[in-house]
Amino acid sequence: MAEKRNELGVFNLRQIVQWLGLPPRMQLVKEGLDASEELYRKLAARLASAHLGSVGLLLTQSGDDRYEVDLQPGAEWRDAAYYLGHQANLRAGRLVVNDPAEMLRRDVESGEPRAFADYRQAVLGHLSLLAVEPGGQEEQAPARAFRAAIEAALEVEKARHAA
């Protein structure tokens, strides 16, 4: 079910946290960063939206724990497919996507034939290319940025209460 929702461009907070490799809220609380659920959710969604922005996409909240992927104004699904194809090439360390149209015909990660109806479906079906890979610098960058944002937000809250 989660895979199907992802192909529809719909995510929940838990999926976003896993997708970006962010620390769970309770881990932050144990470390002394007592962020409210609302603050945690807002910052995770903003970070995910910025991450999607690298390929011309954005994340909008469509419910309490529901977020949808869409195009940034002025962007096109074909362009997003092009950028995701480039990401596939970088991950593979070789040329696996030469033309965004290839993403309509196959799953570029597995190489299996797949018929996507249009570029929107192809992009949503390949969003896993933007997931942060476990281990190494790539995984640490979003987690560090997230921690820094939580720390800064908590400092602002603390200053507001002191004033």
Please provide a written account of the structure.
This protein has 163 residues and is mostly helical. It folds into two domains: 1-73 and 141-163, no CATH class; 76-131, no CATH class. Helix content is 56%, strand content 9%. It contains eight helices and three strands; from the N terminus they run αβαααββαααα. It has a three-stranded antiparallel β-sheet with strand order 1-3-2. β2 (57-63) and β3 form a beta hairpin. α2 (13-20) crosses α4 and α5 (77-92) runs parallel beside α7. The chain starts with a helix and ends with a helix.
Please specify the SSE layout and strand pairing.
Blueprint: H1 2-7, E1 10-11, H2 13-20, H3 25-30, H4 37-53, E2 57-63, E3 66-71, H5 77-92, H6 102-105, H7 119-125, H8 136-162
Antiparallel strand pairs: 1-3, 2-3
Helix pairs in contact: 2-4, 4-8, 5-7
What helical percentage do the residues reach? 55-70%
| Backbone shape | elongated
Q: What is the makeup of the main sheet? A: 3 strands, antiparallel
Number of extended strands: 3
Number of domains: 2
Residue fraction in strands: 5-15%
Query: What is the average per-residue confidence, as pLDDT, rounded to a whole number?
Result: 87
- How many separate helices? 8
The main sheet orders its strands as 1-3-2
Radius of gyration: 17 Å
List the helices and strands in order: HEHHHEEHHHH
